[in-house]
Amino acid sequence: MSTQIQMDEALVEIATGTVRGGITAVGYDFLGIPYGADTSGVNRFRPPQPATPWTGVRDCLALPPKTPQSPRKIRPANAWIRDMTPTGEDCLGLNVYAPALDNRSDRPVMVWLHGGGFEFGSGGAPGLHGGNLAKAGDVVVVTLNHRLNAFGYAYFGDGDDRFADSGTAGMLDIVQALEWVRENIAAFGGDPGNVTIFGQSGGGSKVAVMMTMPRAKGLFHKAIIQSASSMLQLATPESAARSMRQLRKALGIESAEDIQQVPADTLLAAYHAAVKGRNGNDSFRPVADGREIPNHPFDPSAPDLASDVPLMIGSCETEKSFYDVVVDPDKLALTDDDLRQQIARFVGIDEDGSAALIAGYRETRAGMSGRDIYNVITSDHMYRRNGVEAAERKAARGGAPAYLYEFTWKTPVLGGMLKSPHTLCIPFAFGNVGIAKEFVGEGPEQDALMARVMGAWIAFAHTGDPNHAGLPDWTPFDAEARATMIFDNDCRVKNDPKPADLARINACPRFISDAQWAEPAAD
Q1: What radius of gyration, in Å, describes the C-alpha atoms of the chain?
Q2: Looking at the annotation, which residues are catalytic?
């Protein structure tokens, strides 16, 4: 493999052929490099197949297609995280951002796993451009697309060996992308022996799944989980099979081979009908089937395949406020009755318990609006306690350390209504606050926080330790001190922050109950 650099183009030879990238103000972009074959037709629902080699030079100047998915609402405040690239099943492509092409191969590699749950999203949103992070950190950044929803996680657990891994196909795509990194990243200046996987929301959950997959062992060496809500409990074969019964019902087709041939739009519509048919319960997500995924992530009773992998993990204080961007303004205000009822539904408790929970949170938040209280409680329930518990379990196993953080910095946009929302960490970690200014604002305050946050992510990628000169000493998490980095205008380490809130939320139901997963009544 080799690299050629000219004034107007950059050519890199990889295992499947030569790629042409673009030159930017901060480095080199190689967009849409195939790491796997088209996933349509006979490849649908099956493990990814190798990319087809090519002759000559392949232009890698455009983002790869997204896996089939429904469009999302776009407002100015969230446009930076929305990729407008067309969808298609030939979606196994990745993007490489290199600060230089200089025959080095010792730069740390940072592989981003995108959010959007397991339903939608891509690695090509404007705010995920890796150039600034690559340049600032002297690292090579990789973002990628993989299969999602029914295309990535339709579980045909019916004994047909051809489809035995259908419930983990989307995760096997990521494994294949990491194998591509191992084989090819040195040509872009990256060190395949120093790979950090990092992701936010559903991407954070994918990082956690990678940490429990035997096939992924050794393909990465550090992990960062940002704002993951579903990392401790994956789909089970039973819940996935129930969702598949709904999918087959919506299609009117039983055979996996026949479903391979239906148009992508038809399968996507059936997926949405299947989720609706199960009252919104979506088990089209990685299945802990005992094959490729032997157990739920961070299971204390299972072997620790990532004992040598340092972990950085955390969340934002009001994750749920992110979704207020697309809520009609006249529906944002909550009366006391609204608040009590909505918390009861969300958390899974009765209204008396909801009232007591709200009263406990209000003890230190006098005068806070009903909407803001709702966002704090639901964020703790859905995000914070999972991150803390994962850090607890990681620390209890010994081995490589865990570093816990929380974002409490509040964005000033939209009159400050969003506080510290979901996805807030992304533009600061990627060095893209300018791209996301409609979401985070702009100015010296944002620039200073970006330097501290991006510095931590870069330091961690280099050494497995997020400490750098711009932060106070950040010690690993342990059960006694429970050190937590607070990312704010005044970044600080606080031991066991908000313990009463965590105790209250830990007393609430943790996962969806078997009764809630029950088969819906026949029509």
Answers
A1: 22
A2: 201, 319, 422
